[in-house]
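Why do we care about 3D structure at all? Because function follows from shape, and shape follows, mostly, from sequence. That is the central idea of this module. The next example makes it concrete: a single protein chain, its amino acid sequence, and then its structure expressed as tokens.
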Amino acid sequence: FVQIKTHGVALGHIQQPKGKNGKKKGKGEGEGKVDANRTLFNSTIAQMQAEMSGDSWGNLVLHGDAGAGNVLPGEAWLLYGLVRALRPEHVLEIGTAYGYSTLYLAQACKDNGKGKVWTVEIRADRQAEARRWMRAAKLEGLVTFMASMPTPEELPGIDFLFLDAVHTAVNVSLYLSLVKGRLAANAIIVM
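And the structure:
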């Protein structure tokens, strides 16, 4: 068993923030708001997982759509940890599916106090379902949903790219060509 910690975040759960003295924050330091935020996020994830089942590869499947390609829970926590550690301003996710990974990316941005997620999903039914989950977790203000790649005007720079669409060489080359020139010098690409 390996536990990875980044900026005080243990992957697998959202750790309670600590005050300036290194002890857990008291009610006077915003604990009630943090607890409510953590509870809402965790309950939304639990509800989403309850509506999903696993396919033969272990992918989470919603409404019998085995082609959704949602990431595994451990992978979602890894994304959360990376965004927490790297603190990107502009996160682009290609391949929203039902928004499982989007929830973790957006929650990491919220916990960082900075950053926003742009997510691309061409299927309207999947995008509608992802929007539902963002509303449930009260993260909709941190996510911009798109049916096609954002233009340079919509998203001028990309600090963190999560490429979770079709992973054929042709498609990966196409996606990367569409963001070429907009990746920050220290951008991270996760596939």
